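Suppose you are handed only these lines of text.
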Amino acid sequence: MSPVPSLQSSVVVIGSANVDLVATTPRHPLPGETLIGTDFHEYPGGKGLNQAVASARAGARTVFICAVGDDDAGRFLHSIASGESLDLGGIHISPDEPTGRALIVVDDLGENSIIVVPGSNAACPPATNIGPSDVVLAQLEIPISAVTESFIAAREAGAMTILNPAPAAELSAELLSLCEIVIPNEHEIELLGGVSRLQEAGVKTVIVTKGAAGIDIYHEGVCEELPSFRVTPVDTTGAGDAFCGSLAASLAAGHELKDACLRALAGGALATTTHGAVPSLPSQDEIESLIAASS
Ligand code: ADP
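From them, the structure of the protein bound to adenosine-5'-diphosphate can be written out as follows.
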């Protein structure tokens, strides 16, 4: 059934913006080892920017709150974000820190390993101007205090809060109690102490993403497993971000949780079929087409 869209709903993404430096190589280097790579690209990235772009491409009006440096990388990210019809009123220019960078290695199997250098992301301000039907989405590449303040403002406004706890970090009982939905991958949920710990802290819904194996949705005392869409992955960078951004956009559009998860699974799968993070994030049409082709 089609949802009843609310004209007032926005997705508010608060998070990191980085320049991703991506090297491809047959396999990952061991400690102390130098490998000859096969290719190199620079892409816009950062979990915040990726998820904001994923949300906008999935059809939601999207506000992006972040901090970039007063440098060429920051101007590059600003120009990319403007081209994605994001609301950029919340972009803070940090005078002291360079724009964040991520060093990414992708092997022949499409598996990645990543080092993030936060730089200006440490100055990311909290989201403040939040409406009651907004969906506020955050990750952990910015200070946890900014996420907590944003979620306090969101809950006061009556908005939905979604946390993608990546990269995994110790989360306070206060922050967990402010999260309506938490979306960890299998590695992150282990580091967070398991699903029941999150539920006991007050999280209503936990969605564990399992790569090609799909997702587990823990909601109202039930665990439901949904499979991934079958695709041929070339680079899994940005799959989790595509999932989170597509989910937030679908919930803001009024889709029920399970239907929103289906659309997010399509978004995540499509993101693995193209190299890079932002370049791989799918449009609403691509998401609809994959769902239609698979049903
Ligand atoms: P992360 O990128 O955060 O580690 P996952 O690897 O769990 O997260 O991927 C997030 C989502 O992206 C998955 O739940 C799934 O929807 C999609 N996805 C990732 N890898 C694949 C794959 N090989 N085939 C299909 N979908 C995938």
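What can we learn from it? The first helix runs from residue 47 to 57. The longest strand covers residues 62-69.
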